[in-house]
Design goal:
Layout (H helix, E strand, L loop, with lengths): L3 E5 L8 H14 L4 E5 L5 H5 L11 H4 L10 E5 L2 E4 L8 H6 L7 H12 L4 E5 L6 H8 L3 E7 L4 H18 L6 E10 L4 H14 L3 E7 L2 H5 L7 H4 L4 H15 L8 H11 L7
Parallel strand pairs: 1-5, 1-6, 2-4, 2-5, 6-7, 7-8
Antiparallel strand pairs: 3-4
Helix pairs in contact: 1-11, 7-12
Length: 280
């Protein structure tokens, strides 16, 4: 069994990134896939979304600085097949401390290596902060693939161009030569508006098969779930959002690993290198 490592990243907040990380982790675990969720965001939303406390000293922080084994931070999530490395507010200072270390972009990769090499997990999901700081860069340098949650709104493509450019720079700089785009998932889809469908169509026009067919709806129940400390699959298992995330999980599992580079990847590169129009 080899571990599939995927970072969920988008420098813009409020796009459903953490919701997607937690929901995807829960769905993979539900299907019997041994999954580890790493909360790399100092806001610790993925931690609280699973009903766990933000304990001082329990995050990846000490391991990033070489002062602890990351495996010692793994905690049970309360759900079968799902474990988590939680976050804490103190992780925010890592942006400064890690920048002072050698190989500062690869501190997380080094810390994760023993866990990754042990092959005890089928999936490793990293929930990155909503920024392009040191922590996010470490997350991107430590995984094989990146999944980008993208909200169905007017300026979505502008933000997507930025994250795609960063992925390309990390890969070409040598920080992570194998890094590739796993896919783009459209979130916060509102079927009552023409704009949502226009944005989906435009993103698919640029990125082709790299965009998952499943779109995640904007629902009240999905927004409520984190406040109850449960993933949507446990909070309202038959809800529209839970059904959507299970469909997204099925798509992810159906994709080959590693995903072969094809025309869609070439379109993605072209979209990064040229001005990207916004949906109108």
């Amino acid at each position: 069994m080899s571990t599939r490592s995927i970072a969920l990243a988008n420098q813009k907040g409020g796009v459903g990134k953490t919701t997607t990380a937690v929901s995807l982790a829960a769905c993979l675990a539900e299907r019997g896939k041994r999954t580890l969720l790493l909360d790399l965001d100092p806001q610790a939303n993925a931690t609280s979304a699973l009903g766990l406390e933000k304990l001082s000293g329990g995050s990846v922080y000490k391991a990033l600085l070489g002062g602890a084994r990351l495996a010692d931070s793994i905690r049970p999530s309360g759900y079968d097949n799902l474990e988590i490395i939680p976050s804490e507010v103190d992780l925010a200072v890592a942006e400064v401390d890690v920048a002072r270390t050698e190989n500062y972009l690869q501190r997380l990769r080094l810390a994760l290596m023993p866990i990754h090499d042990a092959n005890q997990y089928e999936f490793l999901l990293v929930d990155c902060p909503p920024s392009l700081g040191i922590l996010t860069m470490n997350g991107l340098a430590a995984v094989d693939r990146v999944l980008v949650p993208l909200q169905c709104e007017y300026f979505a493509l502008e933000g997507l161009a930025v994250i795609m450019r960063v992925l390309k720079q990390i890969k070409e700089s040598g920080a992570n030569p194998v890094l590739d785009l796993e896919g783009i998932v459209m979130t916060m889809f509102d079927g009552r508006t023409n704009l949502s469908q226009q944005v989906v169509n435009e993103v698919r026009g640029h990125f082709g098969e790299k965009v998952f067919q499943t779109v995640i709806p904007r629902t009240v129940r999905l927004g409520e779930a984190p406040s109850f400390g449960k993933p949507i699959t446990a909070y309202d298992t038959h809800s529209q959002a839970a059904v959507a995330y299970r469909a997204l999980t099925a798509e992810l599992l159906a994709q080959p690993w590693p995903s072969p580079a094809g025309p869609a990847s070439e379109k993605a590169t072209a979209a990064v290198e040229t001005p990207v129009p916004t949906a109108g």
